[in-house]
């Protein structure tokens, strides 16, 4: 079956996590992704957090499926020549070098345009234009600068970073959308363009609701769905950390389930959604709350939310998170188990949909990865293993028109 991006050739100049997330998605949609890595070294993540001696790490393998790898020293004149050939024959260049690195290599936007005016040049940088534009940035820096850390955690604790890689993978996802949009525009204009996603911007986009709350706070001085309102704590002048409160208009909290004393994930997320208030009261054995004016309406419940959750927790503690899910779902009461990575890895339904995939690798053997979360009926994703360093150098150079002798000479000169 054909793939959505069949025929699109990507010069993948990415490394670490943010850029590779983007190009992996494009590869899953069918693009021919040629990962250009430094001869002899490759993407630094190949050797980071290794769990199998001498094998590419899971860090690398899980971000570089379905790509081809070539080695190239782009600082040597012969390497620059190969890069020029690649630029002429590719549709998109994706890069996430430190600010200015591409220009220092001699491949700024103007030069790339000269070589190929149809080329889309897509970049991840830590910050957009402004005071921090020259800074190098990693995941947690972006989470902090994008507003996530200041709004995550509990009021009496420090700012917290989240395990979801919203700075790296979140930015890669944004960039992929920019690239396919630019490819679409190019079908009409014939021109390439620059696509930039700053990690700070991507995190802020994902924290949109918190900028909403900042403005609500400035206007009204209070936010009733925040735990501070229930506890009577004072609001300051910036959005506070909301603990496990639900971000929307329906209050929620994380509650203990049976086994919580020994299992760190024996918890359920429970939402006291207004339309199902009566079933909630019946399920937990507090039928009198259905008509009690102190509990009957969402507004009346607001100042009592934490004690309501404590009462519901007395009930959730009597069963496992899955048993509680079964009961609550019967009454359409929104809730969700706190799943550990172990439970997710073993979940048969995620395997069945290709969201969790087992991949075989010639050096490291079988491992699990996260497959394509975007399912398309006419462009299915087959996850294939990540390339070994330089595995496709000869193949790609031959496709670009290099003779066997020329390739041998490049190898001799350590250009590839
Ligand atoms: N041949 C020759 N040189 C190469 C090369 C190749 N194939 N590929 C890269 N290089 C060179 C670059 O040209 C650069 O050289 P100069 O510093 O002389 O210009 C050098 O390698 C190092 O690149 P870098 O500065 O990007 O790498 P770093 O490890 O020092 O920094 C990072 C890493 C991620 C902090 C930085 O790349 C960055 O800020 N990127 C943008 C933001 C980003 O994507 N962050 C997410 C990282 S994932 O957590």
TrEMBL record:
<dbReference type="InterPro" id="IPR003673">
    <property type="entry name" value="CoA-Trfase_fam_III"/>
</dbReference>
<keyword id="KW-0808">Transferase</keyword>
<feature type="binding site">
    <location>
        <begin position="72"/>
        <end position="75"/>
    </location>
    <ligand>
        <name>CoA</name>
    </ligand>
</feature>
<dbReference type="InterPro" id="IPR050483">
    <property type="entry name" value="CoA-transferase_III_domain"/>
</dbReference>
<dbReference type="InterPro" id="IPR017659">
    <property type="entry name" value="Formyl_CoA_transfer"/>
</dbReference>
<feature type="binding site">
    <location>
        <begin position="248"/>
        <end position="250"/>
    </location>
    <ligand>
        <name>substrate</name>
    </ligand>
</feature>
<comment type="subunit">
    <text>Homodimer.</text>
</comment>
<feature type="binding site">
    <location>
        <begin position="17"/>
        <end position="18"/>
    </location>
    <ligand>
        <name>CoA</name>
    </ligand>
</feature>
<dbReference type="GO" id="GO:0016740">
    <property type="term" value="F:transferase activity"/>
</dbReference>
<comment type="function">
    <text>Involved in the catabolism of oxalate and in the adapatation to low pH via the induction of the oxalate-dependent acid tolerance response (ATR). Catalyzes the transfer of the CoA moiety from formyl-CoA to oxalate.</text>
</comment>
<comment type="pathway">
    <text>Metabolic intermediate degradation; oxalate degradation; CO(2) and formate from oxalate: step 1/2.</text>
</comment>
<feature type="binding site">
    <location>
        <position position="104"/>
    </location>
    <ligand>
        <name>CoA</name>
    </ligand>
</feature>
<protein>
    <recommendedName>
        <fullName>Formyl-CoA:oxalate CoA-transferase</fullName>
        <ecNumber>2.8.3.16</ecNumber>
    </recommendedName>
</protein>
<dbReference type="InterPro" id="IPR023606">
    <property type="entry name" value="CoA-Trfase_III_dom_1_sf"/>
</dbReference>
<feature type="binding site">
    <location>
        <begin position="136"/>
        <end position="139"/>
    </location>
    <ligand>
        <name>CoA</name>
    </ligand>
</feature>
<feature type="binding site">
    <location>
        <begin position="96"/>
        <end position="98"/>
    </location>
    <ligand>
        <name>CoA</name>
    </ligand>
</feature>
<comment type="similarity">
    <text>Belongs to the CoA-transferase III family. Frc subfamily.</text>
</comment>
<feature type="binding site">
    <location>
        <position position="38"/>
    </location>
    <ligand>
        <name>CoA</name>
    </ligand>
</feature>
<feature type="active site" description="Nucleophile">
    <location>
        <position position="168"/>
    </location>
</feature>
<dbReference type="Pfam" id="PF02515">
    <property type="entry name" value="CoA_transf_3"/>
</dbReference>
<dbReference type="InterPro" id="IPR044855">
    <property type="entry name" value="CoA-Trfase_III_dom3_sf"/>
</dbReference>
């Amino acid at each position: 079956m054909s793939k959505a991006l069949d025929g699109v050739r990507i010069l993948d100049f990415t490394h670490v996590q943010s850029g590779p997330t983007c190009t992996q998605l494009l590869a899953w949609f069918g693009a021919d992704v040629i990962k250009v890595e430094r001869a002899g070294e490759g993407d630094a993540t190949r050797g980071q957090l290794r769990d199998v001696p001498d094998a590419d790490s899971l860090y690398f393998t899980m971000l570089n499926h379905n790509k081809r790898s070539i080695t190239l020293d782009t600082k040597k004149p012969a390497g620059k020549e190969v890069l020029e050939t690649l630029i002429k024959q590719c549709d998109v260049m994706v890069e996430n070098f430190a600010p200015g690195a591409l220009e220092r290599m001699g491949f700024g936007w103007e030069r790339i345009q000269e070589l190929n005016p149809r080329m889309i040049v897509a970049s991840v940088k830590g910050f957009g234009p402004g005071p921090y534009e020259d800074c190098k940035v990693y995941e947690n820096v972006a989470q902090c600068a994008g507003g996530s850390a200041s709004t995550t955690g509990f009021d009496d604790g420090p700012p917290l970073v989240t395990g979801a890689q919203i700075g790296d993978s979140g930015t890669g996802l944004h960039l992929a959308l920019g690239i396919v949009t630019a490819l679409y525009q190019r079908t009409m204009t014939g021109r390439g363009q620059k696509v930039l996603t700053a990690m700070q911007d991507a995190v802020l986009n994902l924290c949109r609701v918190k900028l909403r709350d900042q403005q609500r706070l400035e206007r009204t001085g209070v936010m009733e769905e925040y735990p501070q309102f229930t506890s009577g704590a004072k609001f300051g002048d910036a959005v506070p950390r909301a603990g496990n409160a639900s971000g929307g208009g329906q209050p929620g909290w994380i509650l203990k389930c049976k086994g919580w004393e020994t299992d760190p994930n024996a918890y359920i997320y429970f939402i006291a959604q207004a339309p199902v208030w009566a079933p909630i009261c019946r399920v937990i054995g507090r039928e009198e709350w259905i008509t009690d004016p102190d509990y009957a309406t969402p507004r009346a419940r607001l100042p009592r939310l934490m004690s309501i959750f404590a009462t519901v927790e007395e009930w959730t503690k009597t069963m496992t998170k899955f048993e509680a899910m079964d009961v609550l779902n019967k009454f359409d009461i929104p809730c969700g188990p706190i799943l550990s990575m172990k439970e997710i890895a073993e979940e048969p339904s995620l395997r069945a949909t290709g969201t969790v995939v087992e991949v075989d690798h010639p050096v490291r053997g079988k491992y699990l990865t996260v497959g394509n979360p975007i399912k398309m009926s006419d462009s299915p994703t087959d996850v294939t293993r990540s390339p070994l360093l330089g595995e496709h150098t000869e193949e790609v150079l031959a496709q670009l028109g290099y003779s066997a002798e020329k390739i041998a000479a490049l190898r001799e000169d350590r250009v590839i």
